[in-house]
Every structure is written in structure tokens, then in C-alpha cells.
Amino acid sequence: MNLQERDPAASELFRRLHEGGLLVLVNAHDAGTARLVESLGAQAVATTSAGVAWSHGYPDGDALPLDLLVATVLDIARSVRVPVSVDVEGGTSDDAEAVGEAVARLVEAGAAGINIEDGAGAPDVLASKIAAIKRTAARRGLDLFVNARTDVYLRGLGPAERRIDLTLARAELYRAAGADGLFVPGLVNAEDIQAMASTQPLPLNVLARPGLPSARVLEELGVRRLSAGAALAEAAFARMSALAAAFLKNGESDALLKGAMAYADLNALMAPRAR
Questions:
Q1: So what's the architecture of 3-232 in CATH?
Q2: pTM of this prediction?
Q3: Domain spans, the chain
Q4: Please, what is the average pLDDT of the chain?
Q5: 20, 78, 106, 160: most buried, per Cβ within 10 A?
């Protein structure tokens, strides 16, 4: 049974979370981290494509097989009660209709929203994918929040002084195709953020980066969504790498166990809950 069947209001709730205030998303990479994030008070859970790929032993960048992504979404949706948004990278295919069908599988697995990105590709390609996703969802009676990610700032596309205009042009193309939100990773300058939020109608999503204004300031600038992205997965892998390397070198237990969550607490956190 999928998430929308368990909670028909999940997609509606996720959409409402973008209408006012700032939605802060701590991106999870599996069911356990999703349950942890939810327990800390998160209003919704989003996945990080990089973290999910790494947890399965794949690199980020459209390398994770769709079946594994669907299985991950099923596990996360089983584990949490809050809406789930899924990072689908480029949509698993260059064919728009195939992307629509792939995303439909993720919605049926429990996704209330998705991120889909243009990367280094042509904007028209992503617009076609968004339109196909919306058509497929409508045929199946599915509601879905599509967050269109554009990488103009992240990849440094075009001259710096033209990036606002380039991003706004893509935003309008994606909005016309059916996008519900605009994700601009790499956007950190307050003036540019305010211009982006006030000049186009889609809820603006930014990514945690060095130099990004505080959550309070972001909300004042008009941002509606702040994502941690792969940052927590990167931190977790770094910490595990340091601990594992030290233990392999000296076999000492004290440093390995210092600061760890208690076994009983973690086990209780993962216990099945009635819905």
C-alpha cells in the first residue's frame, strides 16, 4: 500500500508547507536516517540523491538503478509519518515519457514530492520531463509537488552578471511546464536571493552552502525552503571514516564509543509504530 493510500493528505500537506514560512529539510539517505530526522521534529523528509547512491555503493550522478531508488522510497515511507520528497536527479532517463513513468513508480512507493534537475543539459529537456511527469500523474490521479532544480549557479553557467536572468528564464520555462517549486543550489548572495524570490512566482528553495544567510534572514528574503542536501551524509561518512581508520590502526575502544548514540535509544527509535 503506498503512502497516498495510507495518508491521502500527504501531498496536500507537503504543498502547504511551501506557502508560508521556511520549510527546513534535513536530507536523509535511508529509512533509518529518515526516522531519526522525523524524531527531531522535521515537518517533512527529503532524500539526498548522493547519500542514497553512496549507501547502496553507487556514485552520485544518475548511476543508482531505479529499482533500488523505489525500494529506498518504500522503506522510508514505511518508516515515517511525514511527507517524503525524493531527489530523482535527472529522472533516470533522457526520454521524457520514461521519466514520467519512473516518477509515477516513486509516487506510488510513497513520494509526495520530487526534485528533478537540469544539470548541464538543455533547459528544454527538463521542461519536457516536467510536462511528462505532470501528464502521467494526472492520468493516474496522483498529486505531486515537482521542485525544478536549475544548476546555473551551482555549475557557474554563463557570466556571473547574467546568472539571475538565466535562472529566471529557466524558472519561467519550468513553471509553464508544470513545476511547483524552484530549487537554485549555489545561490548564496542575499541580494540575488531576494531578487529570485520576488521576481518569479514559484516557492524558492536554496541549498546549505558556506556563506548562506541564516534561516531567519532567508525567510525575510522570501525563501520558502532550505535543504541540507548531501551535507549530513558527507559528515556522517567523514566521521565513520575517521573512527574506522583509527580503530583499524590501534584497536582502541574508547574513542570509537565516545559520543555514540546509545544502542537502546537507537533500537527504540526504529521500533515499529502503529499508523
A1: Alpha-Beta Barrel (3.20)
A2: 0.94
A3: 3-232
A4: 94
A5: 106
